[in-house]
């Protein structure tokens, strides 16, 4: 019998569209509902994921016992829609929330560039060095996110399970994780959001999980 590889599968799921994301506005910590299209996206993602995993309707053995998500309304609804199709539960995790963008929240890219031209350039060229006015430094936010992901995976391992961990994320956090797993500079995070599918699965061996934990424990800008 073949030995299963040590490690875990992590499935990252993009939260569905809100009116702000449709209009190209920065979300940050704003709590918004899904748009009609956002609900449709979540429904399509649920069916696509069920098909990819070879699940029949209401499978008694879902690949994810829990789908984790930030506590905001849109991410919660996305997770609940997918969980209903996969017969999974959902759980809100506060540390999966988007970075608090302070005065940038709700701004379009054009308005961002007009009001804060230096910060906009910094956000494009070196996003982890940027501290939004009255917001959360993005390096601190990334480390918070990485620590939460590590905890979720390690908790699964402590229960003696090497199965799946599923997480719903909004675009900025999703891009930060995708950049790290793809070994791509964070300045390309928006490219990875636009170019990659809404649902992706990653296999994480123990050494990669340890590197992620090491990064999460680094001191950020506010330390």
Descriptive notes:
- With 223 residues, the chain is of the alpha/beta class.
- It folds into two domains: 8-23 and 41-99 and 136-216, Phosphoglycerate mutase-like (Rossmann fold); 103-135, no CATH class.
- It has helices at 19-22, 36-52, 73-86, 109-115, 117-125, 138-158, 171-181, 189-195, 206-216; strands spanning 8-14, 66-69, 89-92, 164-169, 199-204.
- The protein has a five-stranded mixed sheet, with helices on both faces.
- α3 (73-86) links the parallel β2 (66-69) and β3 (89-92).
- α7 crosses α8.
- It starts with 7 loop residues before the first strand and ends in a 7-residue tail after the last helix.
- The mean pLDDT is 90.
Give a quick set of tags describing it:
2 domains; globular; Rossmann fold; alpha/beta; 5-stranded mixed β-sheet; single chain; about 220 residues
What spatial form do the alpha-carbon principal axes imply? globular
Evaluate the radius of gyration.
17 Å
Q: CATH architecture of the largest domain, please? A: 3-Layer(aba) Sandwich
User: What is the count of helical runs?
Assistant: 9
**Uncertain segments:** none
Q: What order do the SSEs take from the amino end to the carboxyl end, as H and E?
A: EHHEHEHHHEHHEH
- Return the structural class: alpha/beta
Within CATH, the superfamily of the largest domain carries the name Phosphoglycerate mutase-like
Largest sheet: 5 strands, mixed
How much helix is in the residues? 40-55%
Provide a brief overview of the structure.
This protein is of the alpha/beta class and 223 residues long.
């Amino acid at each position: 019998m073949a030995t299963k590889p040590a490690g875990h599968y992590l499935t990252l799921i993009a939260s569905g569209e809100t009116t702000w994301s449709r209009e190209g506005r920065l979300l940050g910590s704003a709590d918004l509902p899904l748009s009609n299209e956002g609900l449709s996206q979540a429904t399509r993602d649920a069916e696509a994921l069920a098909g990819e995993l070879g699940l029949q309707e209401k499978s008694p053995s879902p690949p994810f016992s829990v789908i984790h998500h930030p506590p905001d309304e849109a991410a919660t609804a996305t997770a609940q829609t997918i969980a209903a199709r996969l017969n999974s539960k959902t759980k809100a995790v506060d540390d999966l929330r988007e970075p608090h963008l302070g005065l940038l929240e709700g701004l379009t890219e054009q308005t961002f560039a007009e009001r804060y031209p230096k910060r906009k350039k910094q956000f494009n060229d070196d996003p982890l060095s940027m501290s939004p006015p009255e917001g959360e430094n993005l390096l601190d936010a990334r480390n918070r996110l990485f620590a939460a992901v590590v905890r979720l995976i390690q908790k699964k391992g402590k229960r003696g399970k090497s199965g799946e961990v599923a997480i719903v994320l909004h675009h900025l956090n999703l891009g930060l994780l995708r950049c790290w797993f793809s070994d791509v500079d964070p300045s390309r995070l928006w490219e990875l959001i636009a170019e990659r599918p809404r649902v992706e699965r990653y296999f994480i061996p123990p050494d990669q999980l340890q590197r992620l934990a090491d990064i999460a424990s680094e001191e950020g800008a506010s330390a």
